[in-house]
Amino acid sequence: MDQVAGRRHRPEIQKDPFGHGEPTEAYSEDWSFKDHGRPQNAIERFKFPSGMQQYLEAMGTPQETAVDLIKTFSRRALQGKVPEVNKKAIGTLADQSLEVGMTFQAMGVTREEAIASKLDKIIWDAFFTHCENMFPSDTLFRLTRLREISDLRYPAEWNPAARLMKRKIIMHVGPTNSGKTYSALQRLQAAESGAYLSPLRLLAHEVFERMNDAGTPCNLITGEERRYAVTDSEGNPDPRAAKCVSCTVEMVDLNRKIEVAVVDEIQMLADPDRGWAWTHALLSLPAKEIHLCGEPTVVDLVKNICALTNEEVEVHRYDRLSKMEVMDESLYGQLDKIQKGDCVVTFSRKNIFLLKRHIEASTGLRCAVAYGSLPPESRSTQAKLFNDPNSGYDVLVASDAIGMGLNLNIRRIIFEATEKFDGSVVRTLSLTQLKQIGGRAGRFGTEYAVGLVTTLLQRDIPTLKRAMAAPMIDITRAGIQPTADMLQQFSIQMPGAPFSYVLKTFEMMSRNSGLFFLGLFRGMIAAAEILDKIEMPVRERITFISAPIQVRDPTVVEAAVKMARSVSSGKPLAIDEAVELPPLSILETKAKLDLRKLESSHRIVMLYLWLSQRFGDVFQGGLECDAARRKVQCETLIEKALEQANNERLKKKQQREEDKAKSDSINGETNAGEKVFEEEEDQTE
Prior knowledge:
44% of the residues lie in helices and 13% in strands. It is built from 24 helices and 20 strands. Strands 6-5-7-4-8-9-3-10 form an eight-stranded mixed sheet, with helices on both faces. A six-stranded parallel sheet has the order 11-18-15-12-14-13, sandwiched between helices. The radius of gyration is 27 Å and the shape is globular. InterPro entries: DEXQc_SUV3, Helicase_ATP-bd, Helicase_C-like, P-loop_NTPase, RNA-DNA_Helicase, SUV3_C, Suv3_C_1, Suv3_DEXQc. Keywords: ATP-binding, Helicase, Hydrolase, Mitochondrion, Nucleotide-binding, Transit peptide.
């Protein structure tokens, strides 16, 4: 592919995206950041039929009219006759969008991508304004309606019921290991009614168990599971009887009035993918008291948002309970310096198992593992093994998944690197990521009262020191997302258009205030594209594309399509028709389990359980259903696969020792061969 900045590729013939009309010319949109940052190149991109023409045709504009409008606008814009897109105006708006870029970069999206999207949106908004009087009447009506529906500037007005309440907003802010969440949960436990809103299933489970163990009846509500603490006289679950509910943030009931709500990790409202759920909770929770726990970086933003609702914010600040020190020296690449209680952090599944093998070989210490694609239940089990001084697991090798949701007794955090591949480029970890992960070192009330943080390589020490010493950057914007009603009304104005294109059009036409940004539609659009050819009512389609579909996993995608077809036809689908698992009897044999395949299977089971809560006539749900049993079965097999990986390491070590002993007895000397860490192939993949 030609990577020369600003160079156009040869046009190729492609069919109309909606499957009708004559083929049109299209140019590749492979432009570098330099192109995105220049108004002229952004306008040139805008001219091509692969962009705006498809949007206009989706709104009923004849192809010839659409082409004429685009050419006229582009010509005038390039001549500097459109005030909104002259170089000075674009430059000013691009500078303003730098702040957005930095926010997105901290959450995994590059500044370049954020600015490019901003510039394109500026130009397209100018096009609508400039050509308003030139549109055919039918197109103008639909365009006006679409702009009304996609106006997201006033999210505080979306829930009038919450505006009728006098709510007290209390923030608990501080670093990791400061006790901020503990204080809020104590208030929740004493309340007559309440809810805990968790960022993770794992944390929701933890609070659910904690509340019930303390004698406070508490329900559990996650996307995949419902558990009720109280039953009626006939032994049936009574969802309303428990005084408290622990739920993932997306699953909170915004129609039930409660005394106290605790929203954990409130800084997540800036997350491009899920931030909308925290923002929606902040604006819409019908609670007398709302306790927000998180980082100090979000205090001013919360105050600004609450100013829209005429609500005051009370702020409680907490200091770290245990000390933390950044070491002056790294391990200089020597894994034999790793000790009991250490946690080595790396950023790929392959590196996790590679490091695990090398650490066990060079130190004799056994390693537990934790990473994102490992089921939360398995991560919790691995964390317990690491925390238990008598388990035999003395070291943890983990990804950045440890930054949130696991209680860990860590003596020292060791960064294998301070950079990670984000799906497109290798970039330095954000300030927030380094601080949050590093902050896991040391834990109040344990033998590791002083936490240590260092790196594997000395070259990363300066980066780590700067990050840990630097003040946090304040978060200035919160994510929002349209409601299902908005998307349904929007789709009505685009009859015949694939729903993935409806989402893309909404994303481009939406308008936001300075406090908010539209959350990334990447996951929803990708899911919608997979399901575009399956017949399904719009409302059901909206629900389905909100499901936890791992679009990068072909096995999961195949299962999701099968499930979508079942929803379309109304034909029930059993869990065993969606996923195939090895029987538990395999545990009694020496057969080797495929860990990666089991991880995919677990995603499918969790997707099935999520859908069972929304399409109960198609998918069987409940605590005693086959899918729930398959979940336990899959997690048991995953635990066995992790154990096999460890046992295989021990067997190889024993074999090497036996070979070494034989060699010593024959040759009278030791043949020591040291493998280079970077060059060894990962045999666990």
